[in-house]
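User: My collaborator sent over this chain with a note saying "see what the structure looks like." That's all I know about it. Can you take a look?
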Amino acid sequence: MEIEAAIFDLDGTLIDSVPAYFKITDLILERVNLPPVSREVVVELMKGGREIWDRLIPRDMMHRKDELIRRCMEVGMEIYPKVFFNEVDLIPGVAEIFSQLTANEIKIGLVTSSHARYVDGKLIPLKRNGIYELIDVMITIEDAPKMKPAPDPLIECARRLGVARERSVYVGDSRVDIRAAKEAGMFAIGVLTGIDDQQTLRREDPHMIVESIYALKEFFLKHQLTDGR
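Assistant: Without extra context I'll predict from the sequence alone. Here is the result:
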């Protein structure tokens, strides 16, 4: 396989944001006077889906559900940029891999389940390390009719990049990433730097599982385009 594009998830794949999400959720619930939730619920929140927000609300407060969810999201918007700026950085090796891909003329895409209005704060680590400009296309939840694990956002990213899906790889840290990549007809790579462990990823039968992005250095060298570029 000659790779035309490398497409990446964001949280837990490029940025070490999982601990920050736990902290942000704790701060939100404290500010809105809601009880703590399990780490499993926070992980589900990270994967997206408004229905998960319902699990933050105790049964005896469900009559205020919409109000409380709206308040949680307002507080989250207020505090998350500061937490991301102070506490979240690139996962080691990401800057080197992006530079390698660019040098070998492999296009770089980013597909995140974040809303466009939230993504700027998450991009702070990439901008701080000077690699945000290397991303050719970024897809947020508004850019496709369905979110991961549906393949739609990955297909849209490949379309905007002008590349063949079968010559694209998608790298992500969760089972929804693997499902989306395989449904899109892409080479599916799982990384163990985020929310799902090796056993969970393996159940989705990805093409590869690696410890981190940096472990893909030799893979990208082996599969770069060879048509004179």
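A starting point for your reply to your collaborator: The radius of gyration is 18 Å.
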